[in-house]
């Protein structure tokens, strides 16, 4: 995951220290986009001179996006005209064997315009025309300046990635991984003509990439991008950087066969050096009798293989020596991969065991926290020899892990010790063993009791089967979005599966079916980032404007005129936000004075709206829920490019219906509406609700399980319902135009995070409201109800943690460490998301509680009361 550490370091330096061709060269110059250029500059060095472009050239709203490329080329042309450093003393070397000159021109306009306006746009075509022109200027200038000198110049023109038709990259498709590579100049072989007839060179002949089999009648060669590093090192006459895993393409070089053999030998030794380090690390951290060496390339056979290659070179059989060294290099790369994955199965077992044992610990602690479950008196076999033997085995294995801890990194050591600690926590005392056996016995008798009613057993089996299907659909929906639509259909049918969740009103049930089915439509639509339609955003915003005003009037009391006028103000803000998004889609406005006013408005809104809710919205449930809904709607609206706002609206309807159905059994005194309950003081809630659920009921009840399952479902839908908006692969820079048009990765990452968090923070508010009405927490921290409420939050989080552990085990098994960077990063992000679900549930519940109950005036009154009581 290269992007995360880069952002954390503010894109000023490379996140990983590694050797490079720039480090090895005698002098190097770099011009280009600031965030990229500065990442290539080694720390504390003077031989690499970097000149980043000004920030104003990174403005994506410019009418002429080619200015950044023109600036780079003009800087280079001025350097060649007025500086003699490049052509002076060309054969100079440093004390650490650095030699050669290198110039790196980073032409970023094509990438910027491709992301912002897509490759089929008119702007992108203009960038390509300009790119042809500036490359010719560079070549012409160097050719003219190098006449009469002993300079030998090689040119490499390439790209780090391709791009899809919707302006993304990073996945494994041909459009994203196949890039152009043009190499010519000193030391490079010329083109090879294809000896065939004209019919075989027709445009209908294409290869596996969908490209013509020829390049204007010339042979097209293909290499891996990693091979560029040893190729450039060979052209400069410097050692191959130690971290390189590329193979030098000697067929590109116009040098004698003897030198090619020496180059492949140097490439083999460089890869072999990495293999020896990895081999030593693995052998040192394992018992010799259990260690299994890479079978295709054993260390004892390498000397004989090298002797064979050396003898081939000595006898003048250079071609055979080259092939032998290439074969050895390929084996060494396979060996690196083998040792890299050596402990994967064992560590995978440790991590999976940790998830299972941690879930068992949570269930055991939750179950035995219940007041009505009595621990049975088990006989003396709780203290038997077998339990002691298990403890001894666990402790002994832990000591073995600690013995090799100095050879392992911190991560693998922790992975091995954590399951041992969890086993001991379940087994180290008679009380813990009694709790574990009590839970198992209670669940067994509960499921298989003789007097168990058939209807109840049928309900339990139906809910269990539906829950497993829903979880599996959510898990596979990470990869196949249409499965999220099927999950929404199952979600719509849940009232028929669980009778306790079925509303009495047919209108509510019908609305639940319609809204859940509507929510299931969005995963079938193209992912956000593939298209842009500000008209849809504008129309949706206009529709939501009167709906927000009506919602404010519905939950307000007739005496609170300030709150009603606040509803009109919020509706006006939604309308202006819709206009801002639509206006920024026109290039005339993006480059005019109105852009500044839109930026000021956008930043002011996301700051002032939460403050206005805290200060002006009364601490009653309905107004607070509606107020925070608008707070999260407006930023999402300002950063929408397609149907995000429509999705949020339907998502909000489903979430509100969930809240209504979960709280339908509450009986309120004096015909008080649910929306009118005070959230700032807990006494008013408990006095208004007559049939609170008992705190002594088992934490493992059906209601708690259903709420955790629904929370996970809505959390995943909110995250992936519009596509993987967390991925840079689908991030559209135009979504931030209402806030900034400058290409600032750190700022755009913050805005992207805000966009991601809006649906989830809104869900946290509703989830907290559900917990409030279940009696699951109290606003006051000084009474017994509050302590019980806090423990109830922990219990709900525990059930959520068990379900999230089941999801996390799936994604841990599917972790990748090879393939495209998007495949690797996506597998890691999915695993982290699954791991974070339980923590998100706990934090969102506490944060939502504060959002519903926090009041500046009540806090001031409480502090004044404490001061007065202290003086009294």
From TrEMBL:
<comment type="function">
    <text>Ethanolamine phosphate transferase involved in glycosylphosphatidylinositol-anchor biosynthesis. Transfers ethanolamine phosphate to the first alpha-1,4-linked mannose of the glycosylphosphatidylinositol precursor of GPI-anchor.</text>
</comment>
<feature type="transmembrane region" description="Helical">
    <location>
        <begin position="457"/>
        <end position="476"/>
    </location>
</feature>
<dbReference type="InterPro" id="IPR017852">
    <property type="entry name" value="GPI_EtnP_transferase_1_C"/>
</dbReference>
<keyword id="KW-0812">Transmembrane</keyword>
<feature type="transmembrane region" description="Helical">
    <location>
        <begin position="535"/>
        <end position="555"/>
    </location>
</feature>
<dbReference type="InterPro" id="IPR007070">
    <property type="entry name" value="GPI_EtnP_transferase_1"/>
</dbReference>
<feature type="transmembrane region" description="Helical">
    <location>
        <begin position="793"/>
        <end position="815"/>
    </location>
</feature>
<dbReference type="Pfam" id="PF04987">
    <property type="entry name" value="PigN"/>
</dbReference>
<feature type="transmembrane region" description="Helical">
    <location>
        <begin position="562"/>
        <end position="584"/>
    </location>
</feature>
<dbReference type="InterPro" id="IPR002591">
    <property type="entry name" value="Phosphodiest/P_Trfase"/>
</dbReference>
<keyword id="KW-0472">Membrane</keyword>
<dbReference type="Pfam" id="PF01663">
    <property type="entry name" value="Phosphodiest"/>
</dbReference>
<feature type="domain" description="GPI ethanolamine phosphate transferase 1 C-terminal">
    <location>
        <begin position="334"/>
        <end position="820"/>
    </location>
</feature>
<feature type="transmembrane region" description="Helical">
    <location>
        <begin position="410"/>
        <end position="429"/>
    </location>
</feature>
<keyword id="KW-0337">GPI-anchor biosynthesis</keyword>
<feature type="transmembrane region" description="Helical">
    <location>
        <begin position="746"/>
        <end position="772"/>
    </location>
</feature>
<keyword id="KW-1133">Transmembrane helix</keyword>
<feature type="transmembrane region" description="Helical">
    <location>
        <begin position="649"/>
        <end position="668"/>
    </location>
</feature>
<dbReference type="GO" id="GO:0005789">
    <property type="term" value="C:endoplasmic reticulum membrane"/>
</dbReference>
<protein>
    <recommendedName>
        <fullName>GPI ethanolamine phosphate transferase 1</fullName>
        <ecNumber>2.-.-.-</ecNumber>
    </recommendedName>
</protein>
<feature type="transmembrane region" description="Helical">
    <location>
        <begin position="509"/>
        <end position="529"/>
    </location>
</feature>
<comment type="pathway">
    <text>Glycolipid biosynthesis; glycosylphosphatidylinositol-anchor biosynthesis.</text>
</comment>
<dbReference type="InterPro" id="IPR017850">
    <property type="entry name" value="Alkaline_phosphatase_core_sf"/>
</dbReference>
<feature type="transmembrane region" description="Helical">
    <location>
        <begin position="708"/>
        <end position="726"/>
    </location>
</feature>
<dbReference type="GO" id="GO:0051377">
    <property type="term" value="F:mannose-ethanolamine phosphotransferase activity"/>
</dbReference>
<keyword id="KW-0325">Glycoprotein</keyword>
<feature type="transmembrane region" description="Helical">
    <location>
        <begin position="596"/>
        <end position="618"/>
    </location>
</feature>
<keyword id="KW-0256">Endoplasmic reticulum</keyword>
<comment type="similarity">
    <text>Belongs to the PIGG/PIGN/PIGO family. PIGN subfamily.</text>
</comment>
<dbReference type="GO" id="GO:0006506">
    <property type="term" value="P:GPI anchor biosynthetic process"/>
</dbReference>
<dbReference type="InterPro" id="IPR037671">
    <property type="entry name" value="PIGN_N"/>
</dbReference>
<keyword id="KW-0808">Transferase</keyword>
<feature type="transmembrane region" description="Helical">
    <location>
        <begin position="385"/>
        <end position="404"/>
    </location>
</feature>
<feature type="transmembrane region" description="Helical">
    <location>
        <begin position="827"/>
        <end position="847"/>
    </location>
</feature>
<feature type="transmembrane region" description="Helical">
    <location>
        <begin position="345"/>
        <end position="364"/>
    </location>
</feature>
